[in-house]
Amino acid sequence: MEKQTTGIHHITAIVGHPQENVDFYAGVLGLRLVKQTINFDDPGTYHLYFGNEGGRPGSIITFFPWPNAYRGRIGDGQVGVTTYVVPPGALKFWQNRLTQFEISYQMAKRFDETYLQFDDPHGLHLEIIEREQGDINSWTFGEVTKEVAIKGFGGAVLYSVRPDETAATLVDVMGLEVVGTEGDYTRFKATGDIGNIIDVKMTTGIKGTMGVGTVHHIAWRAKDNTDHLEWQEHAMHHGQYVTDVKDRNYFNAIYFRESGEILFEIATDPPGFAHDESYETMGNQLMLPSQYEHLRNQLEMSLIPIEVRSLD
Fold it and tell me: Which pTM was predicted?
């Protein structure tokens, strides 16, 4: 049974104060807060989801905000850099916007592409790349119009404890294709139009430690529940220690830690983020899974209030 993922479903990271998180990803980057919920395994913590106008898989970055938690260290065994993709011609807008908000950046080239590289307020490494592929994001916020808006993920850069083994997992398990090597990096491509380019750093460095400012896991796409169960069997057949299926309300998930020590998830595209609130009101209020609804008053009192606000 050979399988190919279309690319990234979502990326989940650990950050600090939730309002700082909302201000940056909504206020500065112009993404839509598509879901306010809680960490199902730690219900006293938010789980915030940001993406394009519809919360399409391949556009979703999610966060566990832990104010005053210890700082992590980006390194081997983690997603090192999260890449966003914008329409051709939009990079100058983003240079100006980062300057406007006094966010330091640098320009870099990799595989003949120009990247705008910067960090979020809690230390996550981000970059923006122009590409034709991917649907225009019609969500507008502040001065971020659809002509320049982030379409979703361009992909990610993986830092591995064992790069050769991570590369083999991407090809043999996830079905990505090797498309090039340049310097320290090997590039892999999935079949989708966004979230499809993965660069693996083939040299090792310092080991990453989990905490604020680091990516917790990267999730890959499965098209539906039947496909998801096939992925579970497929990954186990290739020697991965895969979890049982977890119901995350907006998708089903399985997890395994590949040999390079990066935590992989495979998540279903459906049911998506509008099944428990309308498309128009997604992200406006705290949504709880049924098992935590009886704790709503307690949770709403303990969680730090957040609001999406224009910073322009």
Answer: 0.97
pLDDT at 1 over 70: no
Provide φ and ψ at 197, rounded to 5°: -110, 120
CA distances from 137 to 87, 143, 146, 184, 299 (A): 9, 14, 6, 33, 33
CA pseudo-torsion sign 174, 179, 55, 116: positive
CA distance linking residue 75 with residue 143, whole number of Å: 34
Give Cα separations from 210 to 34, 70, 76, 178, 229 (angstroms).
Answer: 25, 9, 11, 29, 29
For residues 129 and 186, the answer to whether their CB atoms sit within 8 Å is no
User: For all residues of the chain together, what is the average pLDDT?
Assistant: 97
Rounded-to-integer distance, Cα 32 and Cα 280, Å? 11
SS3 62: strand
Q: In which band, very low, low, confident or very high, does the pLDDT at 41 lie, cut at 50, 70 and 90?
A: confident
Residues with Cβ within 8 Å of residue 124, at least 6 apart in sequence:
13, 15, 74, 82, 213, 214, 215
Confidence band for 42, pLDDT divided at 50, 70 and 90: confident
Domains of the chain: 8-302 (3.10.180.10)
Neighbours of 176 (CB within 10 A): 24
User: Contact at 8 Å (CB) between 148 and 85?
Assistant: no
